[in-house]
Write a structure and sequence with these properties.
- By secondary structure, the chain is α+β, with helices and mostly antiparallel strands.
- The chain folds into 2 domains: 78 residues, Glutaredoxin; 132 residues, Up-down Bundle (Glutathione S-transferase Yfyf (Class Pi), Chain A, domain 2), CATH 1.20.1050.10.
- Helix content is 57%, strand content 9%.
- The chain contains 10 helices and 4 strands; from the N terminus they run βαβαββαααααααα.
- A 4-stranded mixed beta sheet has the order 2-1-3-4.
- A hairpin with a 5-residue loop joins strand 3 and strand 4.
- Helix 4 packs antiparallel against helix 5.
Length: 225
């Protein structure tokens, strides 16, 4: 079986997707955290975009192949590893799931604005964008507890790191993102209890995220004052 090394950053939500998928499959792997502010040369040789995650696969002949982009990595894990299936069997439903995975990435783009905005106007614009997107998610959810009902999927692996941000944000201020989305709130709660989700970050994640907000002089911190 191929050996796996995951090049990581402790705060990266895209890394968490891959970690969750690997954990759900019960796959052993080596995790190597790097400093994205001081990227090692060996990493830049592996990652054409200079971003994490990168999954380094050691083939049976000893040759290493680097995969980049989180959804590509998750798809590779799903296609090559034993364990619970994380994609639906039906091709149409599977395509829908892939679309919602991309939607999760779009929410992360808006969340970047929420956590790095230094002025009230930009912050509020991004907050509203996040809330509007979760309203769309609310309409797509069924009875739960997960995105596709009883079965955990890659869509859950994508959204769990999104929800994790709010564990800290909720301590700072009420962003009013989930006020009118009871299904989303229930989904968030179910994912927070999942072992693969809980184990996807280190114990210092909240402190590191708070330090990130401080470095970026985030407007959110002013709301907490």
């Amino acid at each position: 079986m191929a050996g796996l090394k995951l090049i990581s950053h402790k705060l990266c939500p895209y890394v968490q997707r891959a970690v969750i998928a690997l954990a759900e499959k019960g796959v052993a792997f080596e995790r190597i955290d790097i400093d994205l502010a001081n990227k090692p040369d060996w990493f830049l040789k592996l990652s054409p975009l200079g971003k994490v995650p990168v999954l380094v696969v050691t083939r049976d002949d000893g040759r290493e192949v680097a995969l980049f982009e989180s959804n590509v990595i998750c798809e590779y894990i799903e296609e090559t590893q034993d364990g619970s299936k994380l994609h639906p069997q039906d091709a149409l439903v599977r395509a829908q799931h892939r679309g919602w995975m991309e939607f999760g990435s779009a929410i992360l783009g808006d969340l970047w604005g929420v956590e790095t905005s230094t002025d009230a106007a930009t912050f509020e614009s991004k907050r509203q964008a996040v809330a509007a997107k979760f309203a769309r998610v609310e309409a797509a959810l069924g009875a739960g507890p997960f995105f596709a009902g009883e079965k955990f999927s890659l869509v859950d692996a994508v959204f769990a790191p999104v929800f994790r941000y709010f564990d800290l944000f909720d301590q700072l201020t009420d962003l009013r993102v989930f006020t009118d989305t009871p299904k989303v709130r229930a989904w968030r709660g179910a994912l927070a209890q999942r072992e693969s989700v809980r184990g996807a970050v280190s114990s210092d994640y909240p402190a590191l995220l708070h330090a990130f907000l401080v470095r970026h002089q985030a407007h959110m911190l002013k709301l907490a004052a």
